[in-house]
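Researcher: Next sequence.
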Amino acid sequence: MNLYEEVKDALTIGIGGHIRPDGDCVGSVMGLYLYLKKVCPDARVQALLEKPADIFSCIKDIDEIHTDLTSDVETFDVFFALDTAAERLGDAQKYFDGARKKINIDHHVSNSGSGDLNYIMPQASSTSELIYDLITGRASAEEGAPDISRLDKDIAMALYIGIIHDTGVFQYSNTSPSTLRAAAELISFGFDFNRLIDETFYEKTYVQNQILGRALLESILFMNGKCVVSMLDRKTMNFYRAEPRDLEGIVSQLRNTKGVECAIFMYQTDILEYKVSLRSNGRVDVARVAEFFGGGGHVRAAGATMQGTFHDIVNNLSGRIAEQMKTEA
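Model: Next structure:
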């Protein structure tokens, strides 16, 4: 896909990402936004997204994101859905559905494509890496070496943030030689990448540390120590004044428990409703588990929204997890 060719005649361009935007979602949306603002100066480019976490305030023009999506539906010439299928765009879905041209860019294996034009690459580390590929021409083999002159320091920083968040700072198995080459080109623009890693990935607030400690303290091992689960209900979250964005990283920390092959973390979103996150060492394909319950994701990282009591949900999940463990045994 030639990114510029798809938008060069557009007068209005919208960009959206999934609900509860994580680092890759924010990085890819803002990287593409900054690029299109530069190469399409006569077009009106808008990013439409739920309010990102404060840790991403270092990204240029992030305060220009439209977070109030309750206004009348506008028809965009082109609308991009990044890092998600259309059904997880939240309030931005109406803009995507009404656009004259719909483009879906994602790396989730569960996404079969929601656009008129789909660029779905499950082998990629992140949607931010895909945006890098499309901007620089690396996505097209005939274009030869990536043309990083199409980037600038601000675009590079946004895309780098997205990549480090979805690769766990290059620790996860989705990190490839191509990912590291892209990261090397991005940091050549001279931003303080060490500070970005510390401030957007590792650093936590006091509340985040408290809620992490509570989740770890109340975690439960089951399936002969192969699985671990933890849950936070609304009462506990209210006690700590914690928001969903304060829960980032809990499931990954659970997965670091010695001997654990699959970790489950869930928090209550409504009466008998929970947002469930799953992490695996690869033996359990958690994307398949999540898809069965209406969610999706990757082999090692996936999620879903599920209804029922905590025990009902754990029982339902454990059945699907046990099936895969038995198959792989």
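Model: The CA atoms of residues 284 and 323 lie 9 Å apart. The first strand starts at residue 12 and ends at 17.
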